[in-house]
Design a protein that fits this description.
Strand order of the largest sheet: 3-4-5
Structural class: mainly beta
Number of strands: 5
Distance between the termini: 59 Å
Largest sheet: 3 strands, antiparallel
Length: 90
């Protein structure tokens, strides 16, 4: 099946204001698939305790939380520090 033009790789260059290179990388595409079947489970992520999560899946309902030691989503109170919200530091 002909998919038309497909890139073989690319180059990324970030420069400082003075024009000098800050960082760069080169990538080569060795294998690709177009529209593969992907299980919904591939998109379910179990974050470890202490992970700072900014959930933007629903634009109207932004959620910011820290995964608690028991795996629950501890809401990040406004003005709280990471240590206070994480529940990891008694």
């Amino acid at each position: 099946m002909d998919y038309g033009w497909v890139p073989s790789g690319g180059t990324y260059v970030a420069k400082r204001q003075d024009g000098s290179v800050r960082e760069s990388s080169v990538a080569t595409i060795k294998k690709f698939e177009i529209n593969p079947v992907i299980s919904k489970d591939e998109f379910e992520i179990d974050f470890p305790p202490g992970t700072d999560v900014l959930d933007q899946r629903k634009a109207a309902k932004l959620r910011h939380y820290i995964v608690q030691p028991d795996g629950s989503a501890g809401i990040f109170p406004k003005g709280a520090t990471y240590r206070e919200a994480s529940g990891l530091d008694p």
